[in-house]
């Protein structure tokens, strides 16, 4: 006696096998030019810039502030 569900199971297994082989969609090549709103990373880079400025590393502090601005340009910490 044959199992009628055997074909269904085989179809499901093959379906998931072939769907797993599909390549992911390509991301845009200019991802660095996109504006990203991420207040958590902005706060981190702002805090790091304050720490660097207090330790006398002003060039690094300015670089961190620029990174913070790239994540959240409307932050209350960065606008003032």
In short:
With 80 residues, the chain is mainly alpha-helical. The chain has helices at residues 5-19, 39-54, 58-71, 76-79.
Task: Describe it.
By secondary structure, this protein is mainly alpha-helical. It has a domain at 33-80. Helix content is 61%, strand content 0%. The protein has four helices and no strands. The chain has helices at residues 5-19, 39-54, 58-71, 76-79. α2 runs antiparallel to α3 (58-71). The chain is rod-shaped, with a radius of gyration of 25 Å. The model has no long low-confidence stretch (mean pLDDT 78).
| Number of DSSP strand runs | 0
Q: Compute the number of helices.
A: 4
Let me know the average pLDDT.
78
Q: What share of the residues lie within helices? A: 55-70%
Order of H and E elements = HHHH
Can you summarize the main beta sheet?
none
Q: How far apart lie the N and C ends?
A: 79 Å
Observed structural traits:
4 helices; 61% helix; 80 residues; single chain; mainly alpha
Secondary structure layout:
Blueprint: H1 5-19, H2 39-54, H3 58-71, H4 76-79
Helix pairs in contact: 2-3
